[in-house]
Amino acid sequence: MLYILKTLISALIIVVVGELSKRSSALAAFLLALPIVSITAFMWIYLESKDGVKIAEISEGTFWYVLPTLPMFLFLSWLLRNNYNFYLALFICCLLTAGLFAITQYFLAR
What we know:
By secondary structure, the chain is mostly helical. The N and C termini lie far apart (41 Å). The longest helix has 24 residues, at 86-109. Helix 1 packs antiparallel against helix 2 (25-33) and helix 3 packs antiparallel against helix 4 (52-66). The chain has helices at 2-23, 25-33, 36-49, 52-66, 70-81, 86-109.
């Protein structure tokens, strides 16, 4: 039952942001910038494990993995404003982000 509740609440967050984007791009961007997914995941993990140290480790890891995603947002915006096909632009940005993740992982492993 908890699994179903977690799924419904998580899906609701995505639907709300999608619907708000129809009314205000700025509000949708603001909500997407909030660490809603991270906070929701922290809550679910903590409710199940009561392990603050685990949350601390995940929180620190999240910080380092957010950094390589930041260029994607600017590059996607640039590609779309320069008339790239949406799916091609998204694919290129996914490749860029994957490469930056690999670089981040390499440095974090050291």
